[in-house]
Amino acid sequence: MGKVLIIGAGGVGTVVATKMAGLPEVFTEIMLASRTKSKCDVIAEKIGNNRVKTAQVDADNVPELVELIKSFGPDIVVNVALPYQDLHIMDACLETGVAYLDTANYEPLDEAKYEYKWQWAYHDKFKDAGITAILGCGFDPGVTSIYTAHAAKHHFDEIQYLDIVDCNGGDHGKAFATNFNPEINIREVTQKGKYWQDGKWVETEPHEIHKPLNYPNIGDRESYLIYHEELESLVKNFPTIKRARFWMTFGQEYLTHLRVIQNIGMAGIEPIMYEGKEIVPIQFLKAVLPDPGDLGENYTGETSIGCRIKGLKDGKEKTYYIYNNCSHQAAFEETGAQGVSYTTGVPATIGAMMYLQGLWKKAGVYNVEEFNPDPFMEKLNQLGLPWVEEHDIDLEL
Ligand code: NDP
């Protein structure tokens, strides 16, 4: 059906390449390119049968990207490198007329700020060029946004209260490690909290608001209100939402380590001089922390991510909870990567499939909730992330 170029050979890239390789009727040709080609080669070799071609690319270098895209000729580029590369890859897609998909919004290197404004500013350029860009097609953002679109389409006349709840109930056995790129992860969880209430953003101190929530098959976990990027597009695309919040679980051990890391300056994103060389503390920290890609082998437990929604249906108040639980071990056995990479890589694969099948194709830059959720929801059940719905229950929130 189509050719795909995957950029980024980390945990998520591993899952995307593995899943796509298993769907030859959709992904006829696959290329995996990244900064370090040897990492692509290891993944391709494991998949076998010469299913995946590999290449070296610096995704911050637009001419280099353009050359690679022109030589391979993909129908879509799946960006699972880091958020810093988003705009460069979008520029290269515009120049070559190729569709674009990512899982995390652009973030400037020197400022930990999660806003869609930079990518949304490309809308008219993509529209005029007749190219599709699909933003935020991981789990959160991604599946949580599609869950919301599904709820709006099938279960509510008006969504009023949205709480996205993200629990990692897994145990990787390390004193401290992050489940995806440490630099991006630490930048995300140490920023101030923010939620939407009655038409405006309310800011909180980091981890100021928290409460225990009960997660299916996991139990009670302390959950912290943090800002997460899908809130921005969801309140825009579902304007009936009065309040939108995002909750993530953290263990005490993780928070203690995080506090120490911050207090000693290791989470800093400003360069400092060390022995005559400029280094960025958080990038140095990344180099000494466990590689998230190596956590899979002994990872036990499950993730549980979903949306708890309250609103109106046929004039009556209704509550609704939709979620997926994903086992780290099952993810590792299938793809060699842990659950967080799996829950991100599977939706990216399905998003690219939606595009190639012509089901999610419109010129411009769109967040995933702006497409028809139905075919995507069906594929989630078939490709390893089945969802569960509960109606008229106590949402705890
Ligand atoms: P990793 O750090 O494991 O992998 C990132 C990959 O990108 C590495 O292979 C890295 O290369 C490559 N890369 C970095 N910079 C460049 C560059 N300039 N040119 C080419 N390649 C580059 O990250 P993850 O796999 O954990 O995460 C991938 C993406 O998924 C991130 O953007 C993350 O924010 C997002 N994500 C989204 C989630 C969601 O639910 N929406 C959840 C989790 C992650 P090298 O190996 O040389 O370092």
Automatic annotation (TrEMBL):
Tell me the ranges covered by the Saccharopine dehydrogenase NADP binding domain, including all copies.
4-134
Please indicate which superkingdom the organism of origin belongs to: Bacteria
InterPro entries of this UniProt entry? NAD(P)-bd_dom_sf, Sacchrp_dh-like_C, Sacchrp_dh_NADP-bd
| Ranges for domain Saccharopine dehydrogenase-like C-terminal | 138-384
- What name does this protein carry? Saccharopine dehydrogenase family protein
Q: Which organism does this sequence originate in?
A: Plebeiibacterium marinum
